[in-house]
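Re: How this chain folds, sequence and tokenised backbone to follow

Filed under: protein folding, tokenised backbone structure, sequence and structure records.

Contents: The amino acid chain and a row of whole-number tokens, matched residue for residue.

Body of memo: The sequence and its backbone structure tokens, given next.
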Amino acid sequence: MPGLRFYVLLTCLFLLNAGHPQGMNRLPVLLTDSLKAHKEGFALHTFSWRFHTMDGRDYSDPAIPDSTWAVTTTAFGRTGQPNGWHGSGWFRLWLKADDNLIDKVLAFRISQTGAAEIYLDGKKIGEAGKIGKTKRETHSARAPFSVYPFILSDHRQHLLAVRYVNEQPPFPEYIAFRLWAGTYEQLASRALDSLKMNSFLLASIGAQLAFVLLHLALFAFYPKQRLNLYYSLFLFATSAVLYLRYLTVGTSDPYLQRITADLFETGIIVAAFLAGILLYGVSDDHLPRKRILISAVLGSLTLLDYFLQYRNASGATIFWLEIFYFLLVMADGLFALVRAILRRKPRIWLIGAGMLILTLFYLVVGSDIFGLMNGNDELIGKWMSIGLLAIPLSFSVYLALNFSDVNRSLSARLKEVQELSELSLAQETEKNRILAGQADQLEKTVAARTLEVRSQAQKLREMDALKSRFIVNLTHEFRTPLSLIIGPAGLIAENAGTDAERKQGRLIKENAQQLLLLINQLLDLSKLEEGKMEIVNAEADILGIATAVLLPFSNAAMQKQLTLALKSRFSKLRGVVDEGKLTMILRNVLSNAIKFSLPGGEILVTVDLEKAQQPTALVFTVADQGMGISAAKLPYVFDRFYQADASDTRSNEGSGIGLALARELVELMNGTIAIASTENVGTVVRIRLPVNMTLANIGDGDLSLQAEKGAIQTEEKDDLTNDGPLLLIIEDHDQLRAFISETLNVKFRTLTARNGEEGIQLAKKYIPDLVITDLMMPGMDGYEVCGKLKTQELTSHIPVMMVTAKNALESRNKGWSAGADAYLSKPFEPAELLALADGLIGNRLLLQERYRREEAWKPAASALPPQELRFLEKVRNLIHSNLANELFGVDQLCDSIGLSKAQLHRKLKNTLGHSPGDLIRMIRLQQALQLLKSGELTVAEIAYSVGFGSPASFSTSFSNYFGYAPRDVKNDH
């Protein structure tokens, strides 16, 4: 099939094989031998015709003399036009036939782009298009497969007259017409053959499109094999070119032919370019970008030359620069194939052999450079049909052999797994044999029994270590197959035809994800055992971490009718800790508590500080009302792979990894973990971690998650009428945008935008409290959205969260540089999204609290971005410069800043926690306080200097704001 890339060029090339023009004779004679020598018909357009302009008179009558008419040929374009040609006229030619053609059915065939009427001895024998009385009634039409029969009954001269109109020629160098004469059988047979050849293109197009769908499906199933994609694109391009060729040859509309001819030329260049990419893809593992760029530039220049030089002015279907580009791309592609063959790339020589065979067919048959085909289109088509099989055959063999290699590789891997299983079984058998021997030996003597026990215990530890390493190594091998299970299972769950199938798909996916979690825990245990796990401490919100851990378990808790709550005597708690490992510890302990809790019970998570010992320690307590653990089994619950109930009838599944991993992580962080349990009463796990605390604010009451639990149980509803924080979601994927909006509507008001441009406009209009934007979007991406929001005064204060599937460090650094405040990796949990949004909005509220203090205009340099600080400084300067102006208010401030009241109100409210009016009044009063402290002016003078209309109103406002009267201001205030 790759050989079809040449089919278009071959079709165009052998159409160029036309006969040489005949000499200009005074009177053409239709001879039997001449007709046999010219299979396409006797070319009458090469003879001398007589021309007369159209003046309303019928010049088809032989009695009308034409000796004074202009002499011309009918194959003229912009040059060679007869005198008096203005888009219409009569053309006449006298002809006769030899004895063998008298009374035989003859025929004419015409090729033109205008409207024509054909007369013989004054009688109309055919027409192409329609010639009306006016220009509007005249319609041009081609007749590519039509013949017009006639009979010559004597040896005398007969008049052939053609009335022709072509006032707006689609091809400037093909204005007039070409006319052939021959036997009816000869010309009808040729027209039928041409129609069959053109119709055959549709069958070829259908076959290629079937292969396009097949290889696109293969690419979707296995995206790593991009060769299927390149091949599909190439086949689609060649199918399009073949269809354009079909229209160009077969259409009756000459103006449509003009369009399809240009598109045909464009398609040939595109197909040749994609053919080069296909050859590069077969030859190399990675596409050579420079070569592809050069090929694209040369192809573009070739097309530019075609359109600038109007290469198709005469209706030709190919030009030599295009052939040169095609051969250049093929030569470079073949060179890449040769290099791949020299590198001994497995079986690449098959593709090279197919390309070589097809190239030889192209040169010897398609182009007929040696003249072996004698211009026989039918013979060329048959041989080229055989030659075109070279590439599909070689390509199919190549893919079949590659598939065979993959199959053998999988078989070998399966054999390795079987051998490993047999080895594990043999080890277990050997262990059992050794244990049996130990039992026999222990019965003989106490001394020997003690010695044997110690010896065998050592051997068992070594075998256990070997087994652990074996399991860890095996888990690495499981990750890729699990990924290939989770992906298709998700597709089944989403796209299955029945509810049962979708349920099965979800079941497969959920269990595969559970296996993946287990594998990740095994790998973490391996890292801990080998000492490769490192502590990465950073300042974090402790209560935020605990909340983020609890939220994902809310659904599981509700399914078991459990009450899940978080309590703490602190309203704010921040410290330097490894957030990832703390999350893992709490998640494993909480998972265990939910797993072994009885329906209707309560799980209480408390967070506290312990300062009795140094350093200060965080204390987490997880208490449940579950089935409890017996005292005999309690010492072993932190051992790896230990299960308190290991029987086959146990009611709760488990791997024995979670608590073991939690203990090792706690010890890695220099902490302690302890467990207390009573059967049928419950279990309490206490975790103590030394932490350098940076913030610990005692609140008015306990922090509880009871409200969140209720919210989770409530059906999600959009509510844009409340006064909660407003979030803007910018996401081009409709379903994901709706999902994020529905998730956040639980606690926030939301706005949505389909792209970056729309998102920027909404952000300017509504000034949201938080912007959540996708990273990769058409048009304006997340980096650009973030950059524009952070560089505009109106939106520079808004925190931005980027949602992305690109987790590389380079991508994150680029986001930080653009001003992003947080990253959320896909896929994500709704609780993670809510917690992150809460954290960002919470940080903004902390800044607002800071600016409510008396020294609101003296923040730390790192408190706000420079752009936002410049904006606030601008506002402050405007207010200070108009302090004495009693009429200066919110309207004047908005005009000076260039923002509407609503925009300025939301920006200042979100940044400082103050409305514009409150801010103006606060600055007036703060300035008054400074003046009062200086003692240089009276209260009345100060009142007027800061813009108050009277000392009385000033005193009232001052007392309400500071809590004491102006006269009470002393140096100690």
